[in-house]
Amino acid sequence: MLDSYRRKNDLVVATDYTGIYNDGTSISQANFSAFVTATNGRRVFWPAGTYQFQAGAADINPEADIYWEGEGRATVLSNFEEFSPFGNYVVFKNLRFKDCDYVIRWDATEALTADTVELVEISGVYYQNVKGGFRQPETAIVWPRHVSLSNIIYDTIGPGGAAFQFNGGAGTYMLRDIIVNYSIDSTYNNGITLASEQDGGAGIDTAIYVENLTFTNLWSREGYANPANLYTFYAEAQEGTVIKVEDVKIQNTNLPLIYLRGASTAIYDGIDIRTDTLRSDFEGPVLLSKTRRQDQEPAMIMRNSVIIVPNITAFYKENIGDVWLYDNYLENAGVGVKYTVNVSVGEVPAYPMTVLMHGNTIKNRASSNNIIGSFPAQIQRLEMYNNKFIVPSGSIPSGANGLLIAGANVNDTMQTLIMRENYFYGVRMNAGTRYIRNAIFENNEVIGSGTHGFGAFNSSVIRNNIFRGFDPDSIVGVGGGATYDWNLYTPNAQRAEFIGNTFDLDNFVRVCNVDIGQAGYCDSLIMNYNTGRIKAQTGNGSKMVRVDSVNYLEMVGNTIEFPTANPEHVVFVENAINFANISGNSFHASGTVGTRMASQGRRVEMISIDIGGAHDGRYST
Q1: Is residue 421 packed enough to be buried (19+ CB in 10 Å), middle (13-18) or exposed (0-12)?
Q2: Is a pLDDT exceeding 50 seen at residue 73?
Q3: Which helix (H) or strand (E) holds 2?
Q4: CA proximity to 132, closest of 109, 108, 156, 101
Q5: How many CA atoms lie within 13 A of 136 on its CB side?
Q6: H/E element holding 3?
Q7: Cα gap 360→306, rounded to integer Å
Q8: Which of 485, 387, 356, 492 shows the shortest CA–CA distance to 430?
Q9: What is the pLDDT of residue 13?
Q10: Are 106 and 112 in contact (CB under 8 A)?
Q11: Which uninterrupted H or E stretch holds 204?
């Protein structure tokens, strides 16, 4: 085989050159430097064997084109470190580097000439006990136009190292089929970090593309460095470009962190992060995205991904642009979790920002003070379809549990909230109703949990949903006086509709609570064709509908059974009502059911009043 290489003018054999040995004999810097000069621009074949370099022998800075290939793991370059070539290309194929510091290093401290290398290509390479395969810090003056890393196994990163660091910038990156295994020492700096300086104006869309990347045995030593700065995978690109990351797995780790930033779009597809132990000082999040896009295309897409981690935020998105989350499974497996999903906005956008969630399962195992999802009012449109939100705590959650949408922020208003065909178990929904204009909650199934706040100040539609309580015999707290409310808060609402819903609730206090403050006013409240059974609490002020002030109240065709204690009032108007149509309803109870409508000095006109079912016939006006 060696003769076939020798017969081709562009192919040479490394061992044909003076002082390049593959039998373990030391290779000096003088012989290696002469070899690099002689093979500049040639395709060099390294036969199987062990090439043992003297200390510092590879630490040279040639302006040379490098194209080396070997026989896979059988070609071993030992103690080969600090090599700094800066020609047109650097290509390593089918080699094994063993017991090295940084194999290639481009630092400002090296005797390099500022230049652009067209291509860095590393494929079929095996690293064993190596501090770093490539080091290009932010201070580097050599800049690669294209970087391609493929079919690489990195077995043990040396102390204080990183598998690949391209922090000084490059044009484009393509990474495929890479496995990185960390050391027992666990004082690494990073796994892989990439920075692209290519902007979209150069006609390049995808600046960074990653496929099939696996990190294993990532055990970071307690107290070593700031865990927020120890990245498993970090990629930064310029606005106008795309970062695409597919099939990335992080396994057996206590410090998983993927961070994509700077690009117009970040795409996560098939991310798989699972661990049950974390460094005690790591506050997360596990997946962090900061991107910026000002057109109608998404700034971030995550799909087909699985993240299962304890105690920290699974996913965090900041800055501006649309967010799409499809078919993901996100779970906080520990106790005391703050967020599972947190979408934040670093800057208030002057254009529509939409968050779309479809087919996700989001689970939070904390028993209190957790937020399964947070979506601020700066998001102008939030749409959720066919998702599952689960808090399997085994008790009625307390504190800030649940789904937080459009929290208090007087400077911003969410224009539209749509939630259809979702499943909620043990999740409190807290939609910041003073900061949502229009809301639709339709065809969802809600099981358990306590007070819900849901609504909008312009229009709220709650239609064709199923509301069920926990099983009182299996859930802690129900027998101890716990309550279930479905409270529809609509301050300054123009219209609120509660239509075609089905109830199966235990220990409720209020079901439809349209809570208008003293300065608030509801024009129309419609509660029609709702059915089911509600176990009202005795002597606890139970009400089917409570409203502060309303112009027009309509309750038509409702069929509700109260199998145990009677509600104090089916309809309770706190202050004022102008017109009411309450007809064709059936409220069946074991005793009497009351209705109160107070005028507070306003004119009250009752039309079509017919409660039906068991009722004491009294109207308090």
Answers
A1: middle
A2: yes
A3: helix 2-6
A4: 101
A5: 25
A6: helix 2-6
A7: 10
A8: 485
A9: 96
A10: yes
A11: none
